[in-house]
């Protein structure tokens, strides 16, 4: 099988239906693919979706494994040579899956590739960034960002027009494609998986950093386009309230600490930082 599309659902049944509809309307008839739905113990009944196509398989997790764990559960059972991690709040634009898959097949030094993401109004969504420095979450979540906007904008790559194929530090985990198992430059085998140290947030940064660390490139490819109906749930409350009343904000802060404990706080914002 060519491709396994893994979608983790957590209380997103309505958006998931739109996502699945876009997949089966996309021009991917020449690709032998499957769709693996992971119901992450949210209580949504997804069995009706199995009627849409014989290509769909459903895995019901007995507990909420988080984003990384849920995706790993889907990857574990995947039969495809390539994996496409997809959020349920995305809508595939025609030709995008083929574009990403062909790019990976034709560029053996690339470990992970991701598309251009657009907001529902078709404005650009900044989905590729530089590796964060330890203070970056503070600049993004508090009033300090207003005073250090140059650093914040540099992190979000606002100096890049997002219209050309580019090697980047990391890509938003809403849409990532990679080979299920690949041979590294040192001839060792790497099976890309999310670190379940993170329940939610930073798992995409960590995976991309691991790819660079293994000597593989992470590439943003705007020739593939997806709509992403994204809401920053962890930032829905003011910073001074969020840590006390919002569990998602606490998850974000927890993952922030875990990431920097794992990778260290002294490293460059350059792509080459991944090749230490």
Taking pLDDT < 50 over at least 5 consecutive residues as the criterion, the unreliable ranges are 267-276
Q: State the helicity in percent bands.
A: 25-40%
**How many helical elements?**
9
Distance between the terminal alpha carbons, to the nearest Å?
35 Å
What class, by secondary structure content?
A: alpha/beta
Instruction: Give the beta-strand count.
Output: 14
SS strand fraction: 15-25%
Average of the residue pLDDT scores: 88
Instruction: Tell me the major beta sheet.
Output: 10 strands, mixed
As a whole number of angstroms, the C-alpha radius of gyration is 18 Å
General form: globular
Element-level helix/strand string:
EHEEHEEHEEEHHHEEEEEHEHH
General description of the model:
- The chain has 276 residues and is an alpha/beta fold.
- It is 32% helix and 24% strand.
- The strands form three sheets. Strands 1, 2, 3, 4, 5, 6, 7, 9, 11 and 14 form a ten-stranded mixed sheet that branches.
- A hairpin with a 5-residue loop joins strand 12 and strand 13 (189-190).
- Helix 8 (239-245) packs across helix 9.
- It is globular, with a radius of gyration of 18 Å.
- The two termini are 35 Å apart.
- The relative contact order is 0.16.
SSE arrangement:
Elements: E1 3-9, H1 13-25, E2 33-39, E3 56-60, H2 66-77, E4 82-86, E5 90-92, H3 96-106, E6 110-118, E7 124-125, E8 128-129, H4 136-141, H5 144-147, H6 149-155, E9 166-167, E10 170-171, E11 175-179, E12 182-183, E13 189-190, H7 203-213, E14 217-228, H8 239-245, H9 247-263
Parallel strand pairs: 1-2, 1-4, 2-3, 6-14
Antiparallel strand pairs: 4-11, 5-14, 6-7, 6-11, 8-10, 9-14, 12-13
